[in-house]
Design goal:
heterodimer, A: about 210 residues, alpha+beta, two-stranded antiparallel ribbon, 5 helices, B: about 190 residues, mainly alpha, Rna Polymerase Sigma Factor, Chain: A, Arc Repressor Mutant, subunit A, 2 domains
């Protein structure tokens, strides 16, 4: 049931795809067989009926909007941030408490506790080393990156220099979703879901 | 914004671009669902599901130029899933009431005489094989050219033309048979 040339030409005319050449060809066919015009008229009528029915059926499409998952995601991100911030604050307090109590214990055990929190003589080097060691054990800290020199100046009246530098720690955490921060039409920050590609780690910049 | 940039931004997760992309394509996507869904399904419900999948999964599209074929595949998947659910329901209904329906000559004999011409034509179009009904229904979406239909279906324009011509001939013959049958029953 291969369509003939007349079927193709009538189709093009009916669908508004006919070129001037197609019209000429159809007129040439009709010159030898005038019933071509009635077949064209019938095809156009049938097409108009079908088009109307399809058009009616598709009216509902205008009622279906894209669901606002993005806004939902943004709101859930805000909640996650809030809970994370809460967790972070709690963790900081817990760490302070753990640090305080562990250093407050005398070798004799709890019986020697005074029951009060006393500021402890824990140096920043000790604290950060403790964080790095614990973080590595827990799998959070991957490595400490090379320090970046920011500023140096000689000490006045003393031997030596003062060095300002940047310390960077490479960490790893597991998260459910990743968001990229963009902005909406009003310029407000808007997080949007982001699926990252798997990137191998560059181990050339290893720890110090 | 041109369609390519719109698709590119939508894939990158720009919510406005996703919305705009959906609005510019939803009508012909609905036509795809209409061409593949079971006849008693609700187009609006299925289209809601398509919209949901589009928003959730558009980031998976690798090539912005392939958005049309991807939208079509999402629409067909949703319609086919609805079709499978429909077949299960139909089997259950038939199991429960087969005796009475057999006596009455079938579960849902359409009252064709009361249906307007266009709806009759649409119902007949929906009975055509998928490769014919899909371009035929898409062609009825205002503003869709042969080229755009070919792009959505992933076939050459000449194939679309041939399928449309065959589909129309089959539809004409089907409607003539129906008309003859109606005259025969005096409806």
């Amino acid at each position: 049931m291969e369509p003939n040339r007349e079927d193709i030409l009538i189709g093009r005319v009916t669908d508004g795809e006919a070129s001037p050449t197609d019209w000429q060809e159809l007129e040439a066919l009709a010159a030898t067989d005038a019933t071509v015009w009635s077949r064209l008229a019938l095809a156009q009528r049938r097409h108009a009926e079908l088009e109307r029915a399809v058009d009616d059926a598709l009216t509902v499409a205008e009622l279906v909007d894209a669901p606002d998952l993005l806004a939902e995601s943004a709101s859930s991100l805000t909640q996650r941030w809030r809970s994370y911030a809460g967790w972070a604050a709690a963790a900081a307090i817990a760490l302070a408490w753990a640090g305080a109590t562990s250093f407050n214990f005398a070798p004799g055990g709890p019986a020697t506790q005074t029951g009060t929190m006393v500021p402890l003589p824990m140096g920043s080097d000790e604290l950060i080393n403790r964080y790095l060691d614990t973080g590595k054990r827990e799998g959070r800290v991957i490595a400490e990156l090379p320090m970046v020199m920011v500023e140096t100046r000689p000490l006045e009246g003393e031997k030596g220099s003062e060095v300002v530098y940047l310390r960077q720690v490479l960490e790893r955490v597991r998260v459910e979703d990743i968001y990229r921060l963009g902005s909406d039409e009003l310029g407000r920050p808007t997080p949007t879901p982001f699926v990252p590609e798997t990137r191998p780690r560059n181990d050339n910049n290893g720890p110090v | 914004m041109d369609p390519f940039s719109q698709a590119e931004r939508a894939i990158d997760g720009d919510p406005d671009a996703v919305r705009a992309l959906w609005e510019s394509h939803r009508r012909w996507v609905a036509a795809i669902v209409l061409a593949h869904m079971p006849r008693d399904a609700e187009l609006e419900d299925l289209l809601q599901e398509v919209a949901m999948r589009v928003v959730k999964q558009i980031h998976r599209v690798r090539d912005p130029a392939a958005v049309r074929p991807w939208l079509r595949s999402v629409a067909i998947n949703v319609a086919r899933t609805a079709g499978r659910r429909h077949m299960v329901r139909l089997r259950l209904v038939r199991t429960e009431s087969s005796a009475t329906e057999d006596a009455a000559g079938g579960p849902d004999r359409p009252a064709l005489a009361t249906v307007e011409e266009g709806r009759r034509a649409l119902a007949a179009a929906q009975r055509l094989r998928p490769e014919y009904r899909e371009p035929l229904i898409l062609q009825c979406v205002r503003g869709m050219s042969y080229r755009q239909i070919a792009e959505a279906l992933g076939v050459p324009v000449t194939t679309i033309e041939t399928r449309l011509a065959r589909a129309r001939r089959m539809l004409r013959e089907e409607l003539e048979r129906e008309g003859a049958a109606l005259e025969g029953t005096g409806a």
